Task: inverse folding
């Protein structure tokens, strides 16, 4: 049943990028809303990131957190204008601070947050030849990979998952590093050669999670989305994003943060590049510690406080 103030005849309009993965995510949320009895439509919006497939993140949007804004700017403009009611994002694409007119109304249950390696011959990172070319533009991944193998070379690799896989098959790299979540959602886990543990390659804050964004003033839509919110996932990503925000994360400070909820609290893993040094930390937070406070504890640990 629809929440008060929302007409059951009026479809909820979801704004989404047009990539295969973005549409999978939008349809996943649309199906969940339909199962609750709501009518839903999807509106495709082309973003700056889609138009600048071959540009590096920092060149595409100087000053943004690891280029995050290039995938949401036009979608948020449509949201603010009222031409869509909600947007579905990969949470790691969202800046740690949203503009005050927007809110994350729901964070559905997270899937596997780990990074993975994809190679043509099925080799693990440690089986690749000396000087192997690894496709990734992420400073976070590059820093941590070099701590595992200092001989590998990096190849700038942008584009959607299918584009990157084609480039790999075409010989532009010997391996790709991707988020497991994207491959899983597209049914491509058979492509994975190596699953990185979080101690090998600490994920980006929010990796593997979706965020459903709407207008902060739209209480009716927020009420409709509340059943999709997963409490353990919301806690984990809130802690991760709090740590990232506190450390001033972005292109110049590559940071990985992962919060693993448990029955007695949570375990937080972190990795931060400080000059030539890679700092890794693992801490525990009790069950009664608020998510933001847990994130600040992780930030302090990574700073060496």
Result:
């Amino acid at each position: 049943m629809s929440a008060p103030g929302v007409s059951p005849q009026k479809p909820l309009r979801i704004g989404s990028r047009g990539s295969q993965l973005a549409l999978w995510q939008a349809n996943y949320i649309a199906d969940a809303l339909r199962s609750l009895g709501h009518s839903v439509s999807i509106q495709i919006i082309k973003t700056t990131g889609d138009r600048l497939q071959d540009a590096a993140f920092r060149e595409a949007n100087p000053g943004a957190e690891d280029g995050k804004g290039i995938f949401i700017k036009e979608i948020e403009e449509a949201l603010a204008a009222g031409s869509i009611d909600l947007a579905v994002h990969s949470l790691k694409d969202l800046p740690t601070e949203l503009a005050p007119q927007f809110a994350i109304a729901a964070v559905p249950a997270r899937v596997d947050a780990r990074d993975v390696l994809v190679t043509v011959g099925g080799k693990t990172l440690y089986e690749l030849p000396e000087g192997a070319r690894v496709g990734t533009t992420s400073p976070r991944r590059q820093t941590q990979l070099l701590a595992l193998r200092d001989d590998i070379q990096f190849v700038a690799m942008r584009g959607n998952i299918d584009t990157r896989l084609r480039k790999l098959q075409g010989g532009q790299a010997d391996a790709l590093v991707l988020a497991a979540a994207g491959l899983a959602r597209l049914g491509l886990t058979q492509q994975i050669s190596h699953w990185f543990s979080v101690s090998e390659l600490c994920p980006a804050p929010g990796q593997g999670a979706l965020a459903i964004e709407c207008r902060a003033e739209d209480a009716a839509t927020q009420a409709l989305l509340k059943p999709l919110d997963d409490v353990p996932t919301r806690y984990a990503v809130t802690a991760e994003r709090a740590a990232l925000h506190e450390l001033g994360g972005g292109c110049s400070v590559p940071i990985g943060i992962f919060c693993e909820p448990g029955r007695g609290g949570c375990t937080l893993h972190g990795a931060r590049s400080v000059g030539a040094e890679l700092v890794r930390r693992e801490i525990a937070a009790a069950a009664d510690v608020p998510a933001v406070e847990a994130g600040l504890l992780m930030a302090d640990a990574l700073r060496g406080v």
Summary: Confidence is low (pLDDT under 50) at residues 1-8, 54-67. The first helix runs from residue 20 to 35.
